Amino acid sequence: MTKVSSLKDKISLSGNVLKVIAIIAMTIDHLAWMGIAEYSQAETPAQIFLHCIGRLTAPIMFFFVAEGYHHTRDYWKYLGRMAALAAISHFAFCYFAYQSFNPFKNELFNATSIAWPLMWGLIFLRVWDMEKTDIWLKMLISVVGCILTVTSDWSCAAPLAILMIGRNRGKFHKQMLWLMAIITLYAVAFYIFKNPTYGMVHMASWFSVPLLSIYNGRRGKLRWLGKIFYLYYPAHLALIGLVTHTVFS
Fold first, then answer.
1. What is the pLDDT of residue 63?
2. Tens digits of per-residue pLDDT, 74-114?
3. Residue burial 7-32, b: 16+ Cβ < 10 Å; e: rest
4. CB atoms within 10 A of CB 98
5. How far apart are CA 64 and CA 203, in angstroms?
6. From the CB of residue 77, how many other CB atoms can be counted at a distance below 10 Å?
7. How many Cα atoms sit within 13 Å of 242 on the Cβ side?
8. pLDDT band at 39 (very low <50, low <70, confident <90, very high)
9. Are 89 and 115 in contact (CB under 8 A)?
10. Least trusted range by pLDDT, from 95-109, 156-170, 219-233
11. 121 near 62, Cβ under 8 Å?
């Protein structure tokens, strides 16, 4: 065994630990938006630093949706949980972000929460695993999914990243190259169409790669911890939204 392998064994992280890191980073990111109505108000060094921390979350989410697909015993039950999360989180996200519950009235890239494209990532993985399905139909479903998720948080980058991570399982370097290529394209689009500063902030997602590189392939002792996200994500958005509307309105 090499010294590098030995070191990795000593500092390896379980799936549960990585998910907790993602939840903490996400919470820091969302708390930093309280009282901020415009991106121009959030371009101070302190705000940018906090939101860079938050960029750790999405890549970890993408990775573990793909891992969950591989390990699940019941795909349809897993998809059902993600669909329920997407539905509930839409209202919590819109309340948190000061926006209308009608997604057609919301801003580009922020019409609904990240839970919606995460669900589509699961659909993409299933579709591309169907060996008897024609390639043109797989591509059509993928295009439709990208169109339906393009204005959500993390846009169609989320399902595409999940697809490529899942399709390259066991090939970590390929997984990360695909992940960062897709995120970079999203960052460029965000830079052009939304906000240049926060387009560049999205590139802080690269810092998730060292964390994912020491994932040990194990869930962790607390088997229920992974499901906490389904409750925590919409609950913390709604709570922050409540505080924001109460204190800053």
1. 98
2. 999 999 999 999 999 999 999 998 666 776 666 666 789 99
3. eeeeeebbbbbbbbbbbebbbbbbeb
4. 15
5. 20
6. 10
7. 7
8. confident
9. yes
10. 95-109
11. yes
Q: Contact 95/33 with Cβ under 8 angstroms?
A: no
Mean pLDDT for the stretch of residues 174-195: 95
Place of tokens 């906090």: 50
For the chain, give the number of residues: 249
pTM for this structure? Answer: 0.91
For residue 211, the one-letter residue type is L
Q: What tokens appear for 185 in the block? A: 């394209």
User: Quick check: 8 and 208 in contact, CB under 8 A?
Assistant: no
238's tokens: 């709604």
* Interatomic CA distance for residues 158 and 58, integer angstroms: 8
Q: Both tokens of residue 21? A: 């890191």
